[in-house]
Amino acid sequence: MKLLVTACQVPFMHGGADYHIDGVTDALRRAGHQVEQVRFPFKFNPTRSIEELMAHCEQQDFSEFNGLQIDKVISLQFPGYGVRHPDHRVWVMHQHRAVYELFDQQPDKRQLEAFKQQVTDYDTRVLARASRLFANSANVASRLRQFNGLNALPLYHPPHGAEHFYCADDWEYIFYPSRLETLKRQSLLIEAAQYLRSPVRILLGGSGGQEAQYRALIEKLGVQDRVHLIGRFSEAEKYTLYARSLGVFFGPYDEDYGYITLEAMLSGKPVITCTDSGGPLEFVREGETGYVREPEPEQIAEAIERLYADKQAAAAMGAAGRESYSQHNISWQQVVNSLLTDN
Questions:
Q1: CB of 139 within 8 A of CB of 145?
Q2: Where along the chain do its domains lie?
Q3: Smallest Cα–Cα separation from 123: which of 172, 158, 90?
Q4: pLDDT score recorded for residue 224
Q5: How far, in Å, are 39, 82, 214, 313 from residue 42 at the CA level?
Q6: What is the CATH code of the structural domain delimited by 162-327?
Q7: How far, in Å, are 102, 104, 207, 250 from residue 188 at the CA level?
Q8: Checking DSSP bridges between strand 64-65 and strand 68-69, what pairing results, if any?
Q9: Mean pLDDT estimate for the chain
Q10: Pfam families recorded for this chain (predicted)?
């Protein structure tokens, strides 16, 4: 079949979304299909640029190009999922979060009221036209149900390089690889360090807008000997950093899906997450594959201490996590089968 995959592109900003977009494109090609990507340039500000892109996408008929018929369109992101095709499969990674679950956190939300309504109306209208509607996770599906009254089927996909993760004896540290941003809440783990009594270290991987603030917080709390910002790392280093950890912390606010949970499970490591972390809660089972705690530093510290005090139990939880990953049947082949079948 001739397939088009639509998504967005923000120049010089790359991350997990690119793994998702390229991953499904490559999987469809491996399945024998002709696949092209159409990526719309996206700017977060001003809102006028988003409104213009919404209007542009909804005007696009992707049924054929120069007489060449397109069999199906698979859309992944706002607002590109507004394009038209008689067999349009939409797999929502997430919506424009600033006008949905993050709206109350916006400093200028009064000025965004009209824009919020415009985006909500757009999503409800264009997503209702999809021949099949999927969501990146049960959490994303729940938002679609709550805000747009639409039912989407959760469809999980594997993290990049899933086959390369492995487990090894721990070197007594908690690993948290992610962008250093407010929503990822590395601050919870930094603040938890002051309550630790065991010699467990904390390694924070990645870079981002909160790096200076986190360095200042580490110094303020006097935990420089325990908390380390290790910056960027290679793919090979990533697999080792997971493999040698005692456990993985992943406590963002209301995450859509979260590769980190799955990467930790593939590495046979228990995950500590929070009660309001969203996507990770679909995989982390309290006391079985990790710990679920309130987003409070003292509670996170207590969970870390439990991992250190009983490493045998920690290893068992990690093994249970890897087994749970297998039971979820998370694979690109499953993704392709789901996206292309009619029911």
A1: no
A2: 2-156+330-340, 162-327
A3: 90
A4: 96
A5: 9, 14, 29, 46
A6: 3.40.50.2000
A7: 19, 21, 17, 10
A8: antiparallel
A9: 95
A10: Glycos_transf_1 (PF00534)
In this predicted model, what pLDDT tens digit does every residue of 248-271 receive, in sequence order? 999 999 999 999 999 999 999 999
Q: What is the largest CA-CA distance in the chain?
A: 69
pLDDT band at 45 (very low <50, low <70, confident <90, very high): confident
pLDDT digits (tens, 9 = 90+) for 308-331: 999 999 999 999 999 999 999 999
State how far the Cα of 191 lies from the Cα of 122, in Å rounded to an integer.
41
Amino acid at 2: K
Task: Say if CB 262 and CB 238 are below 8 A apart.
Answer: no
Record the tokens describing residue 289, joined without a space.
Answer: 């594959």
Asked whether the whole model's pTM tops 0.85, one would answer: yes
- Which residue type is seen at 128? A
Whole-angstrom distance, CA of residue 283 vs CA of residue 289: 8
Closest CA to 208 of 183, 190, 227, 191: 183
CATH code of the domain made up of 2-156+330-340: 3.40.50.2000
In angstroms, how far is CA 112 from the centroid of its own chain? Answer: 25
Mean pLDDT value across residues 62-75: 96
Judge contact between 254 and 98, C-beta under 8 A: no
The reported pLDDT for the residue numbered 217 is 97
